[in-house]
């Protein structure tokens, strides 16, 4: 029995999106910037997708959606697009548990002379809004805080944080890649200025994402050329995968209410089934949490990477939090920021659920995981 429980990494492209991509590839393959009929057919597909993605987050205008190559480029466009609009270094604020698509651009800005403040988080991975208030400076120009943390599942108080930034005239960006399509997002009510999305997290194709930019916010583009995407992202648009993204976004919006409740039930069931395992310590915030997300750190010196490999041998896909670079395993920066030891931060695992996940999948995965732990733990303890 094979069970895929790594939906936070990527989701399978849904058939409706594939069908749309095939249609565009075979019938509407023109350059959307061309004025003739072939180009205008492609342009129609492009704008249809823009409206569909805008609808997922209730954007006030489809023109506020800028298509990118994915969530990483959307994050980079938000951060570097703001930074490049200043001639001298300023101050920006991020959280200590950001995705690398935010943390790395911030680190680059530090090399360029910018001051970057990393907000601390509590043991559950939450930012305290009071810490943001204290961190703001007269030259703070941007705050970027991830909406839903992909490794531990914690949701941030984005409404409160973005309101604090707005009250001081500071731009606010959030990476909502893990939240979109799983929880309601309404940018007309949420006081964010920019918000990142990714197609392949909501059953669309890989290689395409979007940045919502509130009307009136000015960014300097990272790519210069023909001026596509409202002059913010030059280059001929990848219309087939953008069209697939649009279909996935529209269907995600339609299914959101029922699918979110279903995922929450499965999530809580999996937590319950694993609650009697003495070797698994839940991570993240159980109350403020992504609906599809279950995460633990493993005791006894077993690394998350080891568990991923053993579960894969059993036909079950999960994910580890620790990073492996050049053959050396490094503790998870997210878990370290939450106060875990190096050993615990090496043992992070994540099981994430999706449209195809059933109760039987959850039950089977829980049983296999406990069996794997029972087999590995004596070996791990013998090495200690």
Automatic annotation (TrEMBL):
Report what the protein is called: cysteine desulfurase
| Entry superkingdom | Bacteria
Cofactors named for this entry: pyridoxal 5'-phosphate
Recorded catalytic reaction(s): these are: (sulfur carrier)-H + L-cysteine = (sulfur carrier)-SH + L-alanine
**What does the record give as EC number?**
2.8.1.7
What Gene3D superfamilies does the entry give?
1.10.260.50, Aspartate Aminotransferase, domain 1, Type I PLP-dependent aspartate aminotransferase-like (Major domain)
Aminotransferase class V domain: residues covered: 3-363
Q: Which family is it part of?
A: Belongs to the class-V pyridoxal-phosphate-dependent aminotransferase family. NifS/IscS subfamily.
Q: Which UniProt keywords apply?
A: Iron, Iron-sulfur, Metal-binding, Pyridoxal phosphate, Transferase
The opening ranks of the lineage are: Bacteria, Bacillati, Cyanobacteriota, Cyanophyceae, Coleofasciculales
């Amino acid at each position: 029995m094979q069970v895929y429980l790594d939906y936070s990494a990527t989701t399978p492209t849904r058939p409706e999106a594939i069908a749309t991509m095939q249609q565009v590839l075979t019938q509407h393959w023109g350059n959307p910037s061309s004025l003739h009929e072939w180009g205008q057919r492609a342009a129609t597909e492009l704008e249809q997708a823009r409206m569909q993605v805008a609808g997922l987050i209730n954007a006030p205008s489809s023109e506020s959606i800028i298509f990118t190559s994915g969530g990483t480029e959307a994050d980079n466009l938000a951060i570097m697009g703001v930074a490049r609009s200043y001639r001298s270094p300023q101050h920006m604020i991020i959280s200590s548990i950001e995705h690398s698509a935010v943390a790395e651009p911030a680190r680059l800005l530090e090399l360029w002379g910018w001051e970057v403040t990393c907000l601390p988080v509590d043991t559950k991975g939450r930012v305290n809004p009071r810490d943001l208030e204290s961190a703001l400076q007269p030259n703070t120009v941007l705050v970027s805080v991830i909406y839903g943390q992909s490794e531990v599942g914690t949701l941030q108080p984005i409404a409160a944080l973005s309101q604090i930034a707005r009250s001081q005239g500071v731009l606010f960006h959030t990476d909502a890649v893990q939240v979109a399509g799983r929880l309601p997002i309404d940018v007309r009510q949420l006081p964010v200025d920019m918000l990142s999305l990714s197609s392949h997290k909501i059953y669309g194709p890989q290689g395409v994402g979007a940045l919502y930019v509130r009307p009136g916010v000015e960014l300097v583009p990272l790519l210069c050329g023909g001026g596509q995407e409202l002059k913010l992202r030059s280059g001929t648009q990848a219309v087939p995968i953008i069209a697939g993204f649009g279909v996935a976004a529209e269907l995600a919006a339609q299914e959101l209410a029922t699918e979110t409740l279903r995922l929450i039930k499965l999530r809580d069931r999996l937590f319950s089934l694993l609650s009697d395992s003495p070797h698994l310590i839940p991570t993240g915030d159980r109350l403020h949490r992504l609906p599809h997300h279950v995460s633990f750190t493993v005791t006894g010196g077993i690394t998350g990477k080891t568990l991923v490999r053993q579960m894969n041998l059993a036909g079950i896909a999960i994910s580890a939090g620790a990073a492996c670079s050049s053959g050396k395993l490094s503790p998870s920066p997210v878990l370290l920021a939450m106060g875990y030891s190096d050993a615990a931060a090496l043992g992070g695992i994540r099981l994430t659920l999706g449209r195809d996940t059933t109760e039987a999948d959850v039950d089977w995965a829980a049983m296999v995981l406990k069996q794997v732990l029972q087999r590995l733990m004596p070996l791990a303890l013998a090495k200690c």
